[in-house]
Amino acid sequence: MLLVIVSGLALGGLYGMTALVYNVMYSTSKVLSFGTGQFAMVGGIVTAWLVLDFHLPTWLGFLACLVSGAAFGWLAEVIAVRRIVAVSDEHLWVLSTLALSTMVQEAMAIWWGTDPTPFPRVFPQEFAGAFDQKFWFPLILAVLMAVGLEQFYRRSMIGKLFIAMSEDSFAARARGVATDRMRSLSYVLAGMLGALSGFAGGQLTFADFALGTALGLSGFIALAVGGIGSSLGALVGGAVLGMLTALTTHYFGAEYQKTIAIGLLILLLVVRPQGLFGTTRVRQV
Amino acid sequence: MKHDHIRPLLVGLFVLFAAVLPFITGNLYYLHVATIIGVYWVLIATLNLLVGFTGQLSVGHVGLLAIGAYAFCLLAGGQGWNPFLALLTGGAICAVIGLLLGLPSLRLPGFYFAMATLAFGLIVSELALAEQWLTNGSVGMPAPSFPAPFDTPWGFYWLVLGIAIFVTWMTANLARFMWGRAMVALRDSTVAASSVAVPIYFTKLMVFVFSGFTAGIAGGLYATSQTYITPDAFIVNLGIYFFVAIIIGGRGVIIGPFIGAAVLAAIPELVGPLAKYGTFFYGFILLMVVLLLPGGFGELISNLALKLRRQDQASTSIEPDLGALQAAIRGKR
Predict the structure, then answer these.
(1) CA Rg, chain B, in Å?
(2) Which of A117, A235, B34, B93 makes an SS bond possible with A16, Cβ 3.0 to 4.6 Å?
(3) Distance spanning both ends of chain A, measured CA to CA
(4) Can you name the CATH fold of B27-309?
(5) Within the 5-34 window of chain B, which residues sit less than 8 Å (CB to CB) from chain A?
(6) Which of residues 221-280 of B touch A (CB under 8 A)?
(7) Domain containing A240: what range?
(8) DSSP helix/strand/coil, A70
(9) What whole-number percentage of chain A has pLDDT above 90?
């Protein structure tokens, strides 16, 4: 039973981190990217590739993971978001990010193969059941990431600019904020954080090409449950979803994971569309 | 007036070509590809009403296809029903599920709804694997074929062709008249549409029911065309393919998605090495179309047609008959 709870929390940490990544991109561009989960997938596979196939030390794999995530995030902004946001059609960004996400996933499937491969150990630790690093590492990193992002939004200049852009992009631009550069920067940051979550959860999920879609969906459910824009909501939503997933797997079997998860999403969205910690925004007609 | 005759002529020529296709090519494999395109089109034609006209981004219609296919196999194969009755029942079941799928769309904005339908597609394939007593799990089940005139590849092809033409005709009727205007109005501005008394809920749900019904029919036909179905046949990538076909074809045009569906289905089948890169290729095409040609190929074609038409409307200058005018003025005096 302890193992069920711990694995649920670890999964919850992973989902929460993905939800945080959604938030970072949403703050500057108002785009919910279909490819959010792919950052974690790319980061995980790059690390597994370098450390296991080339026998590089883990810290180098970690650096490469962050660099690849940053590069992918920047590319995603340049290819799929920049021109679409300029056109400002409501639905086009759904399509462009879906297209990019599909391409990246299929490219990885062709290059890396479709079988999940094991992920290297990060810390020298014996396998320790419920207290193994594959459980506590993602959980701790998720909390650190949420706290760090909150500090970043409140204390640093760039973080404040992100907040300003999420409030009103045009007003921020009028006050001399380089909104295009900030958006680019937020995608680089999102890519790094996403790859970091892939690194943290690698031992739990393995380096798998299909991780991106599953994580993108689960992270989005966590985000919708918690409420868009809230770091605390992302963590809580992730934890609720992770616990539900683990308990479902324990009592009913792994086949019903998604059924329960999406049931939760639909139920909550129908009852409380803005999420638990979200704020309603009055829409002008 | 001239142009009003061109479109029916083209459609008639195409139908004739499609009908005699089995006599042109003796190759059974090409016939199979043509049949598959027809089956997909039965689903895509009405999904286009949903995605292209009403603007509901459903990525999960592959789930409805799967339910239709399993219902058909269970009823016609396991229970020994008449295949046509089983086909219609599968369609009815999917119509009800389509209605349920449509309910959240009344409240969820675009991306939320796309995610919900994606999850629906995943759930269906998950349950098809899990509920072994019903679906045989990953082993799959054989699909029955249709009775006498339709049991050969040619006969089945003509059956699919007939259903596809009927569905296209219904879709065209819906799209061209009041329903279609209501859908487009909903897509472009829900608030404006409701302010001019377009029944939002009713219109949306009717489109969901209709597209669910034909998705179920397409599922039954798909099962027969494959002769054996497993949960692997209904992966989410197939749903993305339907979606991409509509987007590259052009939203809100009827013939565009057909071109999209045919091209997307035919290229990986006919160019062997591309099969492995099929889904990558779909993603690439989708990205290119979204970035360079947001209206899709359908819009490109209709713009070209419009340009051709404009030459006919060249301004003609009218010379005033000054003599008659003078005479008229003088006569009055």
Answers:
(1) 24
(2) A235
(3) 52
(4) ABC transporter involved in vitamin B12 uptake, BtuC (1.10.3470)
(5) none
(6) 236-237, 240, 247, 276-277, 279-280
(7) 2-271
(8) helix
(9) 30
